[in-house]
Amino acid sequence: MTFSAGLRACIGWRFAVMELQAIMFGLLEKFEFCPPASGELDEIQAVPFGLIIPMKRGKWKEGKQMPLHVKTRK
Predict the structure, then answer these.
(1) How many whole angstroms separate alpha carbon 48 and alpha carbon 51?
(2) Range 6-42 burial, b when 16+ CB lie within 10 A, else e
(3) Which among 6, 20, 21, 36 could disulfide-bond with 40, CB atoms 3.0 to 4.6 Å apart, if both were Cys?
(4) What's the whole-model pTM score?
(5) CA-to-CA distance for 1 and 10, rounded, in angstroms?
(6) Would you write out the chain's pLDDT as a tens digit for each of its 74 residues?
(7) How far apart are CA 21 and CA 43, in angstroms?
C-alpha cells in the first residue's frame, strides 16, 4: 500500500487526497463525461483477470478499453 497506516504512515496522504479532489473538481467543472451509445457498449465484455476488466470483443491484443465520451462544457 502506498500510504499504509500505523506508525510509519505517509504524512502526505491527506495532501495527496486533497490534490486528487481538486483535480477531479476541475475536470468535472470543465468537461461533461457520458457513456457511449448502446451500440458501442455491446462490443464491451467483462473479462476476469484477478479483477474484472473491460475489453472489446475479438480485440484482445488491443488491451483493456472502456469507451467514454468527453465534451467541453459551455
Answers:
(1) 6
(2) eeeeeeeeeeeeeeeeeeeeeeeeeeeeeeeeeeeee
(3) 36
(4) 0.58
(5) 10
(6) 566 766 677 888 889 999 999 999 999 999 999 988 777 777 888 888 888 888 888 888 888 888 888 999 98
(7) 32
- Angle ∠(42,45,47) on CA atoms, nearest 5: 180
Question: Phi, psi (5° rounding) for residue 52?
Answer: -85, 125
Q: How far is CA 44 from the centre of its chain?
A: 16
What would you measure as the largest C-alpha separation in the chain, in angstroms? 51
Q: Do 67 and 44 meet the contact criterion of CB atoms below 8 Å apart?
A: yes
For cell 490534490, the residue is 19
